[in-house]
Amino acid sequence: MALIFLPILAWAHPAMELEQAYLDKGKDYTPRTQHIDKQGRAKFINHLILESSPYLLQHAHNPVNWHRFSDEAFDKAKLENKPIFISIGYATCHWCHVMEEESFDDIEVAKFLNKYFISIKVDREIRPDVDATYMNVSQLINGSGGWPLNAVILPDGKAFFAGTYFTKPQLLDILSQIKTLWKNEKNSIINQANQIDNILNKVEAKMQSDIDKSIIPKAIQSLLSNFDEMEGGFGEAPKFPHESMLLLLIDEQKRNPNDEQLNAITTTLDIMASGGFYDTVGGGFHRYSTDNTWLIPHFEKMLYNQAQLSLVYTRAYQLTRKPLYRRIAQQTLDYVLKEMQDKNGGFFSATDADSEGEEGTFFVWSINEIKRVLNKDEFKRFNRWFDLSSHTDFEGDHVIRFKNINDANVDDYKKIDGLLAKLYNVRIKREPPLTDNKVLLSWNALMVPSLIEAGKVFNEEKYTTAGLVLAGRLESFNKNTQLYRVSINNKLETNALFGDYAYLANAYLSVFDQTNEKKWLNKAVQLVNTMNEKFWDKEQFGYNMTNDNKYLNTRYKESYDGAIPSANGIAYQVLVKLNNRTTKPLFIQQAEQLLSAFSADISQDPYSYSSFILGFNNATFTETANVQYAYQGRIRVHTQTFKDNEISINLDLNPLWHINSNQPLQDSLIATKITNLDAQNWTLENSSYPQGELAKLGFSKEQISIYKDQAKIEIKLKQHSKTYITPTLLLTLQACSDKVCLPPTTITLKP
């Protein structure tokens, strides 16, 4: 009998090791539990004390004997013939906190779990592959999911039950029923788990659907049909910002302007920026709005929202030149740089909704408190701009929200910001929400293009510098040829998943476009090559989320956009960009295969696939960014807009290649030329081309006039329309080497 228990000693961490890990946390460490002895020490220590994840450490002193997602836990379940209770959440999840306090820190619940189950805790932000596996089970069984996500699984990882938040009585009732079934009808449980697993793992050969240009208006119409004309956004409460949808609408508005699209963009962005969902006092966005009017948020702040929404507002400013959008983009980035950045240039993942044991306490204000901070004249001015009526009430206090944000102009903001600064200086003295100090590769990669583009559009060097520093910081996630997903206290953990590779490759391409340094392009190509080796489905096409085939469904592919854009959608955009920036045809071939893998789903429901549609726009009609490429990267076109509608078009040519000048000497050669395509709204007043260089090339006996290496074209436009409409310019050019001339091409510029 003693021999049976020997393996347990090999797996289990001795109590002394757990105790030492607790002591090593130091005096500043505060155990999160109600079970504290007279000396102020936690009465319970479980295996999570050995982890670095803030979420797992929140549960390290529960009386539940938690394990991390590991062989140790699964092997223990097999040996003891017990089902596994797995609970998944994240450090800033409000309802995760509630369930922890009600159930997981409760002695009665803990005794039951410890006796009849092996219990596993998972941080979904570190292991989204585990989360996705059991979220799919919940979606299959219940038609919905959320966090905390709780499932009961077999020792081989197959699930037979899943749900979200349960009260203590509900949880105990469910666990009791499962205990009885496990004892008396175990085979039926195993059969049910196998049936669920078969459904989720079934790979159907989907009929490919033709994706052509008609998918774009179909997708746009699908978005607009779900647009809330009164309050902005898409769908009903709870309202999420759906950044991928907004980016697609902005892209399409640049290409094909119409009032309906523009109204959907501006109405949504104006109301989201008005306050509540947006933190008017401190900058940055909360995770989502609990109501239709974007007033009462769920108060946690996620890095991925800041990354995506700052990019949305930056591009919206480019589209409309509306000062409000510049203000919101910059305030959001300033908030991230000030309050979410670690000392090494990376950014923390999130801040909590709760402080002082209540949701939203840090962010809301009583009228009396505002009056104590501001003098009478200041409060009068504050009351002019901000709504302090019962409409903005949140549990007796108020959310700071503009009465009408479009009533304020640039001069007003200076006065308003002085009042908000006084509130901010008081607020920072409150007990702050928890900061989850994980630095996640994928979410940080989303920040890189946001910072780079803002630096370029707003001519703010601090954003460009921060973006370049961040890109350099993310290089450190690659150690000994292994890319890692997480850095906590500067220690790398957890192998990277497919999404990490896709977002990072896209980030590297944004740096390449900014700097024109080929090393960043090469890094993106290397990442894609490794991504193909690890995650590409050679039979059905598309990228699998993970290549870890232990316990998990390895064939799961992220295809539709959620809180963050579809990893496969971003990978498709990356492959299209690489085709434009390199001479390798394999990238566009793979992009077409990737699109075909999801073509039936995209055709059926384009509403959910904005990232793919945006990539398809780029593949079909070229990109609309300020940096574009011609002749598979041989020519780089960088468009810059300055004051008074002065525009500079900078051309960088690869060695051994040239283009004809604006005044070629032969009628048969195509001149480099800028044409204004929107005479209704713009007049091309002046244009200045560089002097051509005379050259004699191998294929011609005559001298010709050319530009090589670099050339700058400067133009000045005059606007006719009352509202800003993005100019549409056409750049015509023809590239030649010493031996051959390529066909002429045109590039549409949207400065």
What overall geometry do the principal axes of the alpha carbons give? globular
Tally of helical runs: 25
> Helicity, in percent?
40-55%
Q: How many domains would you count in the coordinates? A: 4
SS strand fraction:
15-25%
Looking at this protein, list some descriptive labels.
Glutaredoxin; 5-stranded antiparallel beta sheet; alpha+beta; 4 domains; disordered N terminus; globular
What does this structure look like?
Mean pLDDT is 92; it is low at 1-11. The longest helix is centred in the middle third of the chain and has 18 residues, at 303-320. Helix 11 packs antiparallel against helix 12 and helix 11 packs parallel to helix 25. A hairpin with a 5-residue loop joins strand 4 (149-153) and strand 5. The strands form 9 sheets. The chain has a 5-stranded mixed β-sheet, with helices on both faces. A 5-stranded antiparallel β-sheet has the order 19-20-21-27-24, with no helix packed on it. With 751 residues, it is of the alpha+beta class. It has 25 helices and 30 strands. The chain has 4 domains: 2-201, Glutaredoxin (3-Layer(aba) Sandwich), CATH 3.40.30; 215-362 and 435-621, Glycosyltransferase (Alpha/alpha barrel); 368-427, no CATH class; 627-749, Immunoglobulin-like.
